[in-house]
From TrEMBL:
GO terms for cellular component: cytoplasm; nucleus; plasma membrane. Pfam families: RGS. Keywords: GTPase activation. CDD domains: RGS_RGS10. SMART domains: RGS. This is RGS10 protein.
Length: 181
């Protein structure tokens, strides 16, 4: 099934590129980076290691860092090869985030029905429903607060100052001279 193959990562994701009149990639998507890109979606934030770092810092202050850690662990789990490694990682995720004795327990529906027996036959998407719940919790709850937080706003301000600094402008002018010759 094609959609299953896509979910399992067999096919690379399809990327559509919008080009200008001269066939160059449109700058509207290319130019966004850092906090500007983070502010467009939680997905973009989670694709950027610096964004994840800042989001974790924020969630730590809200006592909910386990949510993003669980989400990241599930993403990593999907890439795991081999039944033995999958069993080990699945058990680690279960013991860390899902068991009643978990050190960093996440709050998800259906958690009480999960038992260690599911760990015997792991598959890449075994945590998907729970991961989706946590993603939605972050997206509709903590992500919007993060975008208003001092952590985000201060990082954005420092990015803007870097962009307008004389050194950055000089480097940009040098680069434009090099590539426009």
């Amino acid at each position: 099934n094609w959609s299953e193959a896509l979910l399992l990562g067999i096919f690379p994701p399809i990327r559509l590129e919008i080009n200008d009149n001269e066939g160059h990639p449109s700058s509207s998507h290319q130019a966004l980076k850092g906090t500007s890109k983070w502010a467009t979606s939680l997905e973009n934030l989670l694709e950027d290691p610096e964004g994840v770092k800042r989001f974790r810092e924020f969630l730590k202050k809200e006592f909910s860092e386990e949510n993003v850690l669980f989400w990241l662990a599930c993403e990593e789990f999907k890439k795991t090869q081999g039944k033995k490694q999958m069993q080990e990682k699945a058990k680690e995720i279960y013991m860390t985030f899902l068991s009643s004795k978990a050190s960093s327990q996440v709050n998800v529906e259906g958690q009480s029905r999960l038992s260690e027996t599911i760990l015997e036959t792991p598959h890449p998407l075994m945590f998907q429903k729970l991961q989706d719940q946590i993603f939605n919790l972050m997206k509709y709850d903590s992500y919007s607060r993060f975008l208003k937080s001092d952590i985000f706003l201060n990082h954005k301000k420092s990015e803007e100052q870097e962009e307008t600094s004389p050194e950055a402008q000089t480097a940009a002018k040098r680069a434009s001279r090099i590539y426009n010759t």
